[in-house]
Write a structure and sequence with these properties.
Blueprint (H helix, E strand, L loop, with lengths): L1 E5 L1 H5 L5 H13 L4 E8 L4 E5 L1 H9 L9 E6 L9 E4 L10 H10 L3 E5 L4 H4 L6 H17 L2 E4 L2 H13 L7 E3 L10 H4 L6 H9 L2 E5 L8 H12 L5 E5 L7 H8 L8 E4 L4 H10 L2 E4 L8 H8 L4 E4 L2 H7 L3 E4 L5 H11 L2 H12 L6 H13 L4
Parallel strand pairs: 1-2, 1-5, 5-6, 6-7, 7-8, 9-10, 9-12, 10-11, 12-13, 13-14
Antiparallel strand pairs: 2-3, 3-4
Helix pairs in contact: 2-17, 4-6, 9-12, 10-15
């Protein structure tokens, strides 16, 4: 069975965020265990273009710098798609330039099965966390997907339940859904293990401060402001530092100004926009806790990454968080910032309790990206049946 795997949005992205990392990891590892052809939509030629897998893999492994080397100039008309295969829409291809209506029609006419990745249902549950145009594009994409897809893949039972509830509420039959967890191997290299490749300023933070870490794109849903308030209320006064590692996202101008003008910036508050995988791994190894206060989440990849490095997690008390992190952390309510600070201070004053949750995190059994890719392969093969 041939798998056509669409990486259109990732090739257009300028930063390596959660979805782009997932696309890169799954596409490159899936290609090791299945017959995979990477493709991208080209709106100029109104056709799919073959993507050079070796060049794509190299660009991902060497700093997420995609060049024209990934392009082949070989364009597929609908007739060039091999019947009997699967078209896997793994990427965040809901933007209009990726023309899902044309792609899905093309796939259907050639008799391929269509599998789509549903990372979360945030645009329906909480559209206010997104620009209005993004929410509109996503809803239109979902309508195309519901009409054409043979399979939806999600990463957690929590998202499956939310999706099923939404379908029931709007009177749409719930489509076939499979759950495939994501892997985690960020920073697993000799460079990360021995601490080389970490800039001196970050090394100084890790070696001289007790800090709580946040990892992920800075955007409203991730609730950075909630954690910052907890620190301003009490945690800075107790000697804790806050390290935020992530790219600037959307709808965050006020927070970015607040961070850039903060009196603790460079002392107990650090905002790192360009951390490498080796540096993220270093921060995971040296942090006191990972804070993960997302108001809504599809999986929560930073939680799994942190646990792989033995770092316990403090997360918002949501079903998806408990599903992913389990007992390898603790949970707080989002209705007041003091719920987070109280939890942190309890651990600071009860070191045996902290050591217990630390041991649980160190005993966490993470899934590798290769294992995750094999699960994706097995789920996609079911479409042959």
């Amino acid at each position: 069975m041939k798998i056509y795997l669409d990486v259109s949005a990732t090739l257009n992205a300028g930063t390596l965020s959660g979805i782009q990392r997932t696309v890169c990891e799954i596409s490159t590892t899936l290609a090791e265990v299945a017959e995979v052809q990477l493709v991208r939509w080209d709106d100029v030629h109104y056709a799919l273009e073959l993507v050079n897998l070796a060049a794509f893999t190299s660009a991902f492994r060497n700093g997420f710098r995609f060049t024209d080397a990934v392009r082949t100039g070989i364009f597929l008309t609908g007739k060039a798609l091999e019947p009997g295969g699967v078209y896997f829409d793994l990427d965040s291809n809901w933007h209009p330039e990726f023309n899902r209506s044309a792609v899905y029609r093309m796939v259907g006419k050639r008799g391929l099965k269509l599998a789509v990745m549903l990372y979360d249902v945030v645009p329906l549950l909480a559209p206010y966390y997104l620009p209005a145009y993004t929410q509109a594009w996503w809803v239109m994409w979902l309508a195309f997907a519901l009409k054409n897809a043979d399979l939806f893949i999600v990463n957690t039972r929590a998202v499956e339940d939310e999706f099923s509830a939404i379908c029931s509420e709007v009177g749409v039959q719930t489509p076939r859904v499979e759950v495939v967890p994501l892997g985690s191997e960020v920073g697993l290299s000799s460079e990360s293990e021995d601490g080389s490749g970490v800039r001196e300023s970050l090394r100084h933070i890790g070696e001289t401060r007790r800090f709580i870490l946040m990892v992920g794109t800075v955007e409203p849903r991730k609730n950075h402001a909630f954690i910052l308030e907890s620190f301003e209320e009490s945690l800075f006064q107790h000697g804790l530092s806050l390290v935020i590692a992530g790219h600037k996202g959307w709808m965050n101008d006020d927070l970015l100004v607040r961070l850039s003008e903060h009196s603790q910036l460079g002392d107990q508050l650090f905002f790192i926009e360009d951390a490498s995988d080796a540096e993220i791994a270093f921060l995971y190894r040296n942090a006191y806790f990972l804070a993960f206060p997302s108001a809504l989440e599809g999986f929560g990849l930073p939680m799994v990454e942190a646990l792989r490095w033995g770092l316990p997690v403090l997360a918002a008390d949501l079903p998806v968080m408990r599903e992913v992190a389990g007992t390898c952390g603790d949970y707080f309510e989002l209705d007041r910032p003091s719920s987070f600070s109280t939890l942190v201070l309890n651990y600071m004053h009860d070191d045996p309790a902290y050591q217990r949750v630390k041991r649980l995190a160190q005993g966490y059994l993470p899934m590798s990206w290769s294992q995750s890719a094999r699960l994706f392969r097995d789920v996609l093969r079911k479409l042959e049946q």
